Amino acid sequence: MRRISLAAASVAMLALSALPASTAMASTPHKLAFPAVSGLKAWGTYTKVAKGIKVNVCAEDMSRSIYAVGAVTVASNSTYKMHTNLGAVAFGYHQTICRSMTLRFTSHLQVYSFTANNKGMITHQTKLKKIY
Fold first, then answer.
1. In terms of CB atoms within 10 Å, which end of the chain has fewer, N or C?
2. According to CATH, what is the number of the domain 23-130?
3. Domain locations in the chain?
């Protein structure tokens, strides 16, 4: 009887160790809320994974008078001295762009959005909004 339970426990451990690390470490996706800008529709999600934060960001240009719109996420370390970002920029009316990437800094996550003109100048940029 003892050998059967030992064999069952060994098989269970083998099955659990065969799962990928990302499956064991991944959390549920959380929605990103971007600051409002006229002419921009932005959305996204983030999920904590073993190697950092997996971020999906989308931006859609909703105004004929705006040349480009963008939505950006900024991930930082605990002191805010090191950071990396991911942004999606849509050029043209009713154009949608989505981007995905795993960001390695996990202490802080912030977002902002902006609009730009056809000369490459930022015409409006929101303040950073803290997600966590």
1. N
2. 2.60.40
3. 23-130
Determine which helix (DSSP H) or strand (DSSP E) holds 5, and give its type and residue range: helix 2-17
pLDDT in tens, 76-107: 999 999 999 999 999 999 999 999 999 999 99
Strand stretches in the chain, DSSP E = 30-32, 40-49, 52-61, 68-76, 83-91, 96-103, 108-116, 122-125, 129-130
Q: What is the rounded distance in angstroms from the CA atom of residue 77 to the CA atom of residue 79?
A: 6
Torsion region of 35: left, alpha or beta (phi above 0 gives left; psi -120 to 50 gives alpha)? beta
Q: Is-contact 98 88, C-beta < 8 A?
A: yes
pTM of the model: 0.77
Q: In angstroms, rounded to a whole number, what is the distance separating the alpha carbons of residues 67 and 65? A: 7
